[in-house]
Amino acid sequence: MSETEVPLVEPDRLAAELAQPDPPTLLDVRWRLAGPPGRDDYALGHLPGGVFVDLDTALCGPPGTAGRHPLPDPPALQTALRAAGVRAGHPVVVYDGGDGMAAARAWWTLRWAGHRQVRLLHGGWPAWTAAGLPTSTETPDPALGDVTVRPGALAVLDADGAARLAAADEGVLLDVRTAPRYRGETEPIDPVAGHVPGAVNLPAPEYVTEGRFPSAETLRARFAAAGVTADAPVGAYCGSGVTAAQAVLALHLAGRPDAALYVGSWSNWVADPDRPVATGETPAR
Q1: pLDDT at position 79, please?
Q2: What confidence score (pLDDT) does residue 228 get?
Q3: If you average pLDDT over residues 15-39, what whole number do you get?
Q4: Which among 13, 166, 213, 262 is least surrounded, fewest beta carbons within 10 Å?
Q5: pLDDT tens digit string along 149-186?
Q6: Under 8 Å between Cβ of 52 and 58
Q7: 3-state SS of the chain?
């Protein structure tokens, strides 16, 4: 895979690549916010050769004041990726249960860790099975990988950086949660409802549908309508940095590989009671 290739792969193409003598490393990252565990789905069937990697424990750090899905400890991440067979300079494909969120966070994490050759199976497990492609219940035993985690290859925002971006005259901080959560009308997970002052609401279903992305031109138009220009800074957050990683992937597809992820997202923002909270509609800019 070249560094300029679109970071999505369709099922038929992936099937052909997996049939080659040295196929991509395949990571199954199926996950749900509220159970049952993705490992249960993996046990019932997965792509042949796919290795299960747990989003919560392998690709993220322990939950706490840094957020519900904070950055992983780099040595721990390196150990987990090597155990899954990830090799330096060798392509990786990640897939999830179809909504694309866990796979996008896995894509983002590997890219942040310095591994450029990573793609997402477009449409995930449902797209693979709908294409009538083979599945397996065998658990592979991959050879130990040799990837080296070098964090910082993708842009990251902390709370202060998110606040500055949201308040800037130029630049946009996107809040990709549902509109009622953004407006502060409901908050089913975190202890405080509302949004980062100055953030612009762009709910995920407005730029991705059931884990599938539209064309780059369509994405650019949708982000432009939210105030994202061609070169002004842009970042994204959600509840805990999973859905927002999908937004960053969409921004990459739209030609903004510099887009930043506020990894801690709302769960980190509200961990400090002194941080301001806004409610209501997206402010005029």
Answers
A1: 98
A2: 96
A3: 92
A4: 13
A5: 999 999 999 999 999 999 998 899 999 999 999 999 99
A6: no
A7: CCCCCCCEECHHHHHHHHCCCCCCEEEECCCCCCCCCHHHHHHHCECCCCEECCHHHHCCCCCECCECCCCCCHHHHHHHHHHCCCCCCCCEEEECCCCCHHHHHHHHHHHHCCCCCEEEECCHHHHHHHCCCCCECCCCCCCCCCCCCCCCCCCEECHHHHHHHHHCCCCEEEECCCHHHHHCCCCCCCCCCCECCCCEECCHHHCCECCECCCHHHHHHHHHHCCCCCCCCEEEECCCCCHHHHHHHHHHHCCCCCCEEECCHHHHHCCCCCCCCECCCCCCC
CB atoms near residue 18 (< 10 Å): 17
| Active-site option among 154, 204, 238, 278 | 238
Per-residue pLDDT at 86 = 98
* Buried-exposed string 84-117: b where 16+ CB fall within 10 A, e elsewhere: bbbbeebbbbbbbbbbbbbbbbbbbbbbbbbbeb
Q: How far apart are CA 153 and CA 37, in angstroms?
A: 30
Tell which residue, 214, 240, 284, 257, has the closest CA to residue 105. Answer: 240
238 catalytic per annotation: yes
What is the reported pTM?
A: 0.96
What's the token pair of residue 108? Answer: 């983002």
214-259 pLDDT per residue, tens: 999 999 999 999 999 988 999 999 999 999 999 999 999 999 999 9
